[in-house]
Amino acid sequence: MNKPNLIPCFLLAAGRGERMRPLTDELPKPLLTIKNKSLLAWHVEALSSAGIQDVVINHAWLGRKIEEALGNGSQFGLNITYSPETSALETAGGIRKALPLLNPRDYFLVINGDVFSPNLPIQQLLNQAPNLRSMSSRPLAHLLMVPNPAQHPEGDFYIKDSQVANEPLDGAEKLTFSGIGLYHRDLFKDLELDVPTKLAPILREAMSKNRVSGEKYTGPWHDVGTPQRLQELNAANE
């Protein structure tokens, strides 16, 4: 295990998982398994190995089952707390609600609970925090970008020389946002509490002010969005 890292992590696990039905009718989507290990378990084990200590997980649909599965995190060497939502608050709304539990000095790590990235470069991302702090126009977000998957060929944002933009940049590559990134707490400071708020518009606003950086990741990464994709991942890992 690496030395302890004081950057907290937020795992997004409040989605209903409509596209994964009927698998998610009686199980939260992040508890679906690959190689007999839940998506959340893959994440928390990787976080523990990277030296992360404090993890907050939000939940809404069948959230009790997430708490029963992971407990207080002691089995992983982590301190896990939960941010329950009566109804899902979307990504940014969920982050805003959980900020007091995360209590970050400045930056914190956020990972979508429904992505599968078995060699997730957590340490690589954590190492970016000192660089972000030293920049004159301190980025409000640092996003992990991945090559566009078959189900999302158009990508999300443009990246060039670590700058991420919503508009085309000369010589930039348009990639897909992995659902994994470092965020500064100030990105969410003006959001109302307990109001459903999407993340993308907030990121786009920050991009318009050149306050979003990022990096390309070419390792294994999958958006586990349909039962077929889940089946294919399990078949590939047999």
Automatic annotation (TrEMBL):
The keyword Signal does not apply. This is Nucleoside-diphosphate-sugar pyrophosphorylase involved in lipopolysaccharide biosynthesis/translation initiation factor 2B, gamma/epsilon subunits (eIF-2Bgamma/eIF-2Bepsilon). Keywords: Initiation factor, Nucleotidyltransferase, Protein biosynthesis, Transferase. Transmembrane segments: none annotated. Pfam families: NTP_transferase (PF00483). Gene3D superfamilies: Spore Coat Polysaccharide Biosynthesis Protein SpsA, Chain A. It comes from the Bacteria.
